[in-house]
Each structure stands twice: as C-alpha cells, then as structure tokens.
C-alpha cells in the first residue's frame, strides 16, 4: 500500500510539471550574414556581456545587450485576452519585458516584433513608474505595468513587467520579442518587483520550487520545465552543486578546467554563472586563449580547422568533485566553411557557462535548496 501511495505521488508530481517547448530559431548573426551586414553590425553594436552582470544603478537600469548568437525562445502570453510573445528565458537576469504597441524605432526593430497593446487587455493595470534598458550605445526608457502572464494552461496574476518604448536597430533581427528573467529576485528586478518564477511558486502553480532546462542542437525538442525534472531528458543521476554566493545569479564554484589531465584554466578555482541567456562559454582572456591553444585554434577569434573536430581533445570542467566533459562536437561552432570554438573572452575573472555548456548537460535550478543540478543530457535524434 505504501508503494502505491509513493507511485501515485510521483505520477501526480509528473502531471503537475509545466513543459514549455523552446525553439532554436535562426540567430541574428545568421540573418545578418545572409544580408551581408554582420561585420557592420558587429562593429557598431559591440557584444559586451560585462554590462549584463554589472550592478544596476538605483535598481532601475535593466541590462540589455546584443545577443548575436542567441536562438532559443519560447512562447508566453500576456493580458486578457492573451497576446502572444516569443521570449528568451534568461537565467542571467530577473525581469520580464516586451515591446509596447507605442514602441518607436529608427529601424524595423519594433515592427519586426510583437507588441503589447495595453488597451486590449481587460486585466492590465498601469503604473506611474518607468524603467530603463541600457544599451552599449546608450539607453532607453519604458513603461511599467501589471497583468496576467500565461504559459499554456498555467497563469500568474498581477505580474510586473516592462514595456519598451524605444528600440535600437540591433534588435531588428533577433528571433525573440522580449526577455523573461529567471534569476533570483535580489538581482534588482524592475523597481523591486517580484520576478515571474517567484510569483508562479508563491501562487501555488507548481509542485516544487525549481525549474530545469534541456537544450538540443536541433530546431525542436528543447524544453523549459517548471516545477520539477524529467528523466526522459537526461541519463544517470543529477549531481547537485551549491550556489556559491548570494549574488542573485546562479553562481557556482569551479575547481579547475583540464585537458588530457593538464590544468589549462581556473587553476586556483574560479566562480561561474550558469546563464541560459549567453551563447558561449565566457572566461578571462588569458585562460580562454590557453584553452584555444590546446585545442588547436589558430587565431584570437578561436578559428579551428573543421576537418580536425574529431581529433580535438575533450575539455573537462571539474566542479564540486565531479568532472563534466565537453567533447569537441559540443564546443565548436560551424559557420558555412569555417569553424570556431564556443569560448569567448571578457574582462572578468568570472566564467559564464552559457548554451555551449548547457546543451551538454541537463540543468536544474533549485530555488528551495539554492543548488544547481547537472546531468548528462540525452542527445536528440538530429544531433547524433
């Protein structure tokens, strides 16, 4: 009888999970390269991930940077009746924002994306507050409001969110309309408001105070799971890693990074943020250049010979006593006839473990225990 009760509880828990399909769309870089504009945009809108992780002045400045490679997005709805938006689910920020119907742009940034019409929603509640989104080239302001946010059959009421009023040209070709942040609430959310996931938990919509992400290299099959984990997306057991610092980010300790038994980076240990809103694995310039040298890159941009991928070494991230291995097939990007490693540099001692890392490991973000869980992700049929 006790076993039957346990099995029933597991079935009930599984049925309560909310799965949000993530689509791997065409990146802004791909779109711009097809138009012959990528080099021009890269010079004009410098990718500066540091801006995202700087503390926000006054709690009102929302980091907004150019994500030329980001491709994963899911669909949510806001308002009554619901208005649909494609959003980047970002574990490196805490805010929800989408374009306003009053959004203005000198380019097609607003016209190329869905825009929220406040007057068309019977549940929208305006606010007198505003917020700012910071660009590398400046910043813009937006309105703040409250409304119902819907994920399939799940909804959360009175959710604070931002409505952008001005958008720069670099947003033209991004595959998503806005961002939904999944970081901790003390990561200076808009005007001190409660982030979406916190409201989902507080309003009793999910069985566990955690979510998990499965990323695949194919167009379909990636998934955000709210309220639990799904063993059909990973093999073996989940290895749990405690959050190292109460920074608001999903930050963990990394013991070292090794290749063929040699420590090639993070020799004395380092901090790393697990961030679904960053494409590459970012690290200090010296360490990343050393890794690129070990794998055979022949330029500062990490260019490698596409014909050598099968002979390139595995890279192991040693974390909390466990080794998490990245084969070359997961850390090399192919762009037409050229290939480059998925390691980028920035002026910081901290590491960012982005999509390159998360495609290899099913990742659990446990708010109740302040843990990050990692397990070997199952391959999709298309990635074999």
From TrEMBL:
Organism lineage string: Eukaryota, Metazoa, Chordata, Craniata, Vertebrata
Protein name per its UniProtKB record: pepsin A
GO annotation terms (biological process): digestion; proteolysis
InterPro entries: Aspartic_peptidase_A1, Aspartic_peptidase_AS, Aspartic_peptidase_N, PEPTIDASE_A1, Peptidase_aspartic_dom_sf
EC number from the UniProt entry: 3.4.23.1
Family: Belongs to the peptidase A1 family.
Role of this protein: Shows particularly broad specificity; although bonds involving phenylalanine and leucine are preferred, many others are also cleaved to some extent.
EC class name: hydrolase
Gene3D superfamilies per record: 2.60.40.1960, 6.10.140.60, Acid Proteases (2.40.70.10)
Name of a matching Pfam family: A1_Propeptide
Annotated GO MF terms: aspartic-type endopeptidase activity
SUPFAM superfamilies, alphabetized: Acid proteases
Location of the active site: 90, 275
Domain Peptidase A1: 72-375
Keywords per UniProt: Aspartyl protease, Digestion, Disulfide bond, Hydrolase, Protease, Signal
Disulfide bond entries: 103-110, 266-270, 306-339
Organism name: Oncorhynchus mykiss (Rainbow trout)
Signal peptide boundaries: 1-16
């Amino acid at each position: 009888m006790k076993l039957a009760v346990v099995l029933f509880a597991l079935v009930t828990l599984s049925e309560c999970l909310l799965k949000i399909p993530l689509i791997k769309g065409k990146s802004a870089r791909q779109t711009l390269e097809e138009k012959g504009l990528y080099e021009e945009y890269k010079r004009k809108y410098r990718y500066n991930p540091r801006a995202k992780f700087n503390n926000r002045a006054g709690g009102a400045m929302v980091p907004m940077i150019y994500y030329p490679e980001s491709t994963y997005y899911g669909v949510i709805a806001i308002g009554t009746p619901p208005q649909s938006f494609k959003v980047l689910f970002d574990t490196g920020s805490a805010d929800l924002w989408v374009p306003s119907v009053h959004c203005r742009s000198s380019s097609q940034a607003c016209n190329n994306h869905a825009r929220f019409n406040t007057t068309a929603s019977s549940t929208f509640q305006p606010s007198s507050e505003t917020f700012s989104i910071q660009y590398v080239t400046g910043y813009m302001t937006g309105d703040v409001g409250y409304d119902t946010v819907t994920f399939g059959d799940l909804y959360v009421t009175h959710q604070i969110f931002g409505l952008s009023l001005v958008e720069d040209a670099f947003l033209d070709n991004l595959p998503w309309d806005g961002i939904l942040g999944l970081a901790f609430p003390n990561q200076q959310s808009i005007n001190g408001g409660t982030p979406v996931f916190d409201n989902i938990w507080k309003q009793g919509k999910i069985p566990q105070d955690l979510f998990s992400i499965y990323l695949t290299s194919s167009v379909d099959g990636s998934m955000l799971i709210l309220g639990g984990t799904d063993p059909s997306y990973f093999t073996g057991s989940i290895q749990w890693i405690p959050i190292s610092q109460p920074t608001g980010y999903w930050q963990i300790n990394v013991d070292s990074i090794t290749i063929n038994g040699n420590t090639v980076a993070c020799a004395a240990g380092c901090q790393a943020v697990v961030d679904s809103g960053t494409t590459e694995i970012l690290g200090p310039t010296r360490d990343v250049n050393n890794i690129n040298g070990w794998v055979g890159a022949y330029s500062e941009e990490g260019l490698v010979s596409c014909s050598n991928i099968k002979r390139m070494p595995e890279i192991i991230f040693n974390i909390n006593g466990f080794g998490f291995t990245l084969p070359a097939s997961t850390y090399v990007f192919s762009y037409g006839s050229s290939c480059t490693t998925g390691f980028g540099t920035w002026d910081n001692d901290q590491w960012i473990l982005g999509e390159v890392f998360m495609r290899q490991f099913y990742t659990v973000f446990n708010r109740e225990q302040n843990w990050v869980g990692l397990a070997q992700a199952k391959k999709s049929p298309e990635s074999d």
